[in-house]
Amino acid sequence: MKAVSILGSTGSIGCNTLRVIEFLGDYRVVGLAAGSNVEKLADQVEKFRPEIVAVKNYECAKKLSGELEARGILNHQPKILVGEEGLVKVATHEKAEIVVSATVGATGFVPTLRAIETGKRVALANKETLVMAGELMMQAAEKSGAEILPVDSEHNALHQCLRGEKKSEVKRLILTASGGPFRTKTKAEIERATVEEALNHPNWKMGDKITIDSATLMNKGLEVIEAHWLFGFDPERISVLIHPQSIVHSMIELIDGSVIAQLGVTDMKHAIQYALTFPERRPCCLEPLDFRKFSKLTFEEPDVERFPCLQLAYDALKVGGTMPAVMNAANEVAVQAFLDRKIRLTDIPKIIKMVMESHKVEKLKDLETVKSADSWAREVAVSVLVEKAFHLA
């Protein structure tokens, strides 16, 4: 029985991971970490009986303890911890062989780094951690011997395409993107986009933050940065293609002109299982892809004029140092402001650009450098929101 800890267990990736674990049968859960969704976490604790759990704060911990007691699990209650310290404890649990990092945004940065430092296999769904400090993450993995297996469908696809290929024979990586809900919309229509429209992704059911990132194509920009660190390719050798059907999850082009693609159904359980069982392949709980249901597969270039967040991510990667962390933090603040209906969708890249232009880049020396840049960018992004008077009127 392989032991697994899950960071972000009540989110879509976390819930799907538990479904995969239940299907596989020879994996067990030793740690779960969530935010404030206490009822769903209690369901998971009751079913999977982890040894340790972490929640957002002491109020959530009290509610969880009461919920478990009400269900008669008093004698089998796991140890309940809170905050970042709790996340780190779950991520570094001595019995955990695999850590699924599926928290949203920068929250998962420190616990993921600690898991890597302790030599765990990290099934990474939190792309922001590599965006913020990919250099530190990869250095830690090299030192500890930790494996980083991507759970994002695109990077998981690239991992599969690159198996057995020499890096010197790969011309470029090609990340595919659905294009989101505004792929065919004009700039004026995107300007008027509502929160409900932005959250209505055509192909994937995901959390709010990643869904908004998909609508702005920032999600694909973050994936470009993640691909750079995971696979060691310069930004000039990482391309993005819009593929509305989301069947081809990513491709690699070889120097002889051949292209290798990974195709599959639009369901994250396949990528999750691959990250858990690698290098072994096993039967999956999903139905196989049925080509008879698809009349065509189409591809197009992304439009960075309508979706400037993608170019901002490329710019941040090329500058390097603390710039990607600053870009990521500014994006998180701006996305939340949009979800709170304080700004337009098209204000998100404007805010990010302003924060990036005012940042003095530093080299990534250590964890504190990253955290300082992240904190600085959040403060500046908030001040930009106020000073520039972004509003919906």
Q: What do the pLDDT scores average to?
A: 93
CATH superfamily caption of the domain at 2-150: NAD(P)-binding Rossmann-like Domain
Structural class: alpha/beta
Which series of helices and strands comes N to C?
EHEHEHEHEHEHEHEHHHHEEEHHHHH
Shape label: globular
Under the CATH scheme, the architecture of the domain at 2-150 is 3-Layer(aba) Sandwich
For the biggest sheet, the summary is: 7 strands, parallel
Instruction: Give the strand tally.
Output: 11
* CATH-defined topology of the domain at 2-150: Rossmann fold
What does this protein structure show overall?
The chain has about 400 residues and is an alpha/beta fold. It has a domain at about 1-150: NAD(P)-binding Rossmann-like Domain (Rossmann fold). The chain is built from 16 helices and 11 strands. The chain has helices spanning about 10-25, 40-50, 60-70, 85-90, 110-115, 130-145, 155-160, 185-190, 195-200, 210-215, 220-230, 270-275, 310-320, 325-340, 345-355, 365-385; strands at about 1-5, 25-35, 50-55, 80, 100, 120-125, 150, 170-175, 240, 250-255, 260-265. Strands 4-3-2-1-5-6-7 form a 7-stranded parallel β-sheet, with helices on both faces. Helix 3 (about 60-70) links the parallel strand 3 and strand 4. Helix 2 packs across helix 3 (about 60-70) and helix 14 crosses helix 16 (about 365-385). It is globular and about 60 Å long. It starts with a strand and ends in a 6-residue tail after the last helix. The mean pLDDT is about 95.
